[in-house]
Amino acid sequence: MSANRSPSFVWLRGFAATGVVILHACAAYLTVPMPGLTWAIQDRPCAGLNTLFWSIELFIMPLFLMMAGFFVLPLIQKHQVFGFLRHRGKRLLLPLIVFSVILLPLVFYTWMLGWLIEDRVTVAEVKRLKFVAGQDEHLWGLSHLWFLQYLFLYCVVFAAAYSFWPRRWRSATLREKLRRPSLVALAAISLAVLAVAPEVVFGFQHAFYPVPSKWLYSGCFFAGGIWLSVYDPQLRQVNRLCFRLLFVGGLAACVSLFAMRQALIESGFPLAMGLMLLATVVAAWSISLGLHGLAHRLPQRVPMAVQSFATASFWVYLVHHPLVGLSHISVKQLAPSAPAWVKLLVVTTITIAVCLASFHVFVRRTWLGLLLGVPQSPGNASAVATPRASDQQPEGVPRLLRFPARNPSARKAA
């Protein structure tokens, strides 16, 4: 069985998909709105949900990108360069095109419904697609589908680098020398980009094309996944360090959220801004790596419910956006005085339930499932123990890039 179906990544995919749904479910209740993020409706602000939103925002996309980067090296070894690009185009570019045509109009008119209810636009403006100057400034773009576009471009860059990488740079000795400097360099680049463009994390850039600063910052975490697959393919080191990484990441997240209020809302004090940026990068890297290690410690027997949700996670990511918007509108109209935490629970539950129901009815065994790479053969994850990533090397990893399973000198060097 391939490593991407090992229990570690089944747990991670389920957690990440749930996290992104909760993130967007919090968006209607923010006390500190995200600049550039337009939403279908605004409900009564809640400080607790605001904290939850910004806490998830610090690490959720780095986690997705690191998971994606972890598997590109095995894939390119398995399919070779052009086969790899065809594989990634089929799995990323084709769904991006198909779901942009289907979902983006649905998201747009969901948002317009909310704006009409709140009297922010008129029916005539919606029909003409002409709004008050500046009102639609952050309305047009790929919405949450930007991830597929960015990920495909990272794969293209990786394939080119893999093809032209000098042979003399592939020695095991040089690889070991670059182990720590390469990770430090990625963290430093992400910090430098964030210092130039804080809106990469503390804002949202809507566009139909990649935003350079966002593309570079996100690419560091994609490269971090490649780094992890090269230097810790069995997840032993992050497993050993996971609690320390999560503690450091959690502490850094608290510092980042405190400094964010000081830097962006109150005084704009330069020291607070610097502290916010540094803590954000530490939190993103530490939590993302720590969650990989923590997932490796979870039970080897994955419950059927978790396995089923992880299988549907790509579909959940694709279609949840308009469902969250519609749920926000409905909950506000039907229970305007309900506590924000109750509304969050209702919106999240409805969204995930509809996503899972539609997956099993319209996707699981249809052409959509084939398009999204959903396994078509039935399985019973709760009945059969699935091998951990530690029990195998990822498929296709070249011998030069593997760590020997029982080599004391390699463990010492690690």
Write the layout of secondary structure elements.
Layout: H1 7-25, H2 47-70, H3 72-117, H4 123-128, H5 146-164, H6 172-177, H7 179-196, H8 199-202, H9 212-231, H10 236-266, H11 270-297, H12 304-311, H13 313-334, H14 340-363, H15 367-371, H16 408-413
Q: From the alpha-carbon coordinates, what is the Rg to the nearest angstrom?
A: 22 Å
Nearest-integer average pLDDT: 86
In DSSP terms (H or I, runs of 4 or more residues), the helix count works out at: 16
List low-confidence stretches.
379-414
What percent of residues adopt helix (DSSP H or I)? 55-70%
How many independent structural domains?
1
Q: What is the chain-wise order of helices and strands?
A: HHHHHHHHHHHHHHHH
Residue share in β-strands? under 5%
Shape: globular
User: Main sheet?
Assistant: none
Structural class, from secondary structure content? mainly alpha
| Spatial separation of the terminal alpha carbons | 27 Å
Oligomer: single chain
- The count of β-strands is 0
Question: Quick gist of this model?
Answer:
With 414 residues, the protein is an all-alpha fold. The chain is built from 16 helices and no strands.
Could you please describe the fold and organization of this structure?
The protein has 414 residues and is an all-alpha fold. The protein has one domain (3-413). 69% of the residues lie in helices and 0% in strands. It is built from 16 helices and no strands. It has helices at residues 7-25, 47-70, 72-117, 123-128, 146-164, 172-177, 179-196, 199-202, 212-231, 236-266, 270-297, 304-311, 313-334, 340-363, 367-371, 408-413. Helix 1 (7-25) packs across helix 14 (340-363). The longest helix is centred in the first third of the chain and has 46 residues, at 72-117. The chain is globular and about 65 Å long. The two termini are 27 Å apart. The relative contact order is 0.17.
